[in-house]
Records
---
Amino acid sequence: MLESVQAEVMMSFLVSEELSFRIPVELRYEMRDPYAVRMTFHLPGDAPVTWAFGRELLLDGLGRPSGDGDVHVSPAEPDNLSDVHIRLQVGGDRALFRAGAAPLVAFLDRTDKLVPLGQERALGEFEVHLEEALGRILAEEQSAG
């Protein structure tokens, strides 16, 4: 049985208004942690960095500004939903990425086929391993910082 969904999406890393470069970003969703998606950013010259955050945050951010913590997702332009900004923040450090909405929608659609949105609690195995999953997320966030 399929237990995860993966995709690679090219995103623009927006360093400043004048400078950006395209990087591959691996998206991953796993049944064992059905509320989260993981994005692994492959920045040139650095070790890959993985961020885990709510699948619902990514979905909501496709259509309207979303997020109130270290991760914010929003349409790049209010009247045009074709691109999405993903802003990640650790302390005073920020990174801004721009991605096409279409590959993110395709990825989220595949995650929904694996675990329909709103049905995450039906996975009894997740409830049993909740503490383990939270520990993994916290460890990933600490290693990313």
---
Amino acid sequence: MNLSCATCPDVSTLGNVVYDAGMLIALATPKPGLALVRHNRHRTKGLPVVPAPVVAQAWRRGASQVHLARSLKDCAVICCYTESEWRRVGELIGEAGLPSKKRPDPVDGLVALTAVQIRANVIATSDPGDIQAYLDVLTGGDAVVPLRV
């Protein structure tokens, strides 16, 4: 990650959790319930980290985006990944032991890679099995827990 770019947040503000699209979709609902409770808890330890492609997966038109926009203000959206990191994501897709009915998802791979790179403890996700498959092939992935939202 190129966290020294002008559009990325200060590395000292990053928290110990990374969100995938499932968490953002949960936060976008008019009554986010447990997702909002967890979000408020996560942000006490720094800004939850959201890779920019995750925003694209979750963002849709409509009034519900007001809720998501509010939550994203409390997050660190990371947009600057290097070519070698994107290549590593491609390798993860080839190495991960995803269930046979699952399609590889480069954004899930990026979420897992980001969590390992920033030494996050948790990935808030709606697909813990998929995320775990990517973490299983990453050095340091055993230190990250995928938490279902």
---
Amino acid sequence: MSESFKLAGPLSDRDSWTAAQWCSMERALDLIGTRSAMTLLREAFYGATRFDDLVRRAGVTPAVGSQRLRDMVASGLLAREPYQEPGQRTRNAYTITQLGLEVFPIITALARLGDRLPGAPEKTILLSHAGCGEPIATEVHCARGHLVKPSDTVVSVVDAPDTEAGHLREQKSHDS
């Protein structure tokens, strides 16, 4: 059985189109598809908020960290909040936004994948639920809660909703 997506409508003729200019996944990868962006996000999820701490812990240069953080703030994944220590200049702390929380399943899936790759190190991290101690599983569900496999996924082309309407529709589906 094939575990590929089902392409619907005009997408079903794969030779007649390419998603290179409008693919949502490519837009996301343009923002977070680098090692530096993902390690900065990992560190933000680990609780780092200050620029120096984020850059040091992610193992990136200040120039790279500055650019990636600026891009993630501009795109709404992170928020910049000014703080000032006594006798020091004002600096910015970086916090994860509601939109940034949507990266959480990606972080958990990448961590689990890394554990399963050949040549894994002797030690690894364990992501577990604070409430019961069980390991976290990353799964894909539809808005009604059904577990979805790739072969259960239908890909269609639709008009992109304006941001406000899209968020309202998404909120209603979560409230149902």
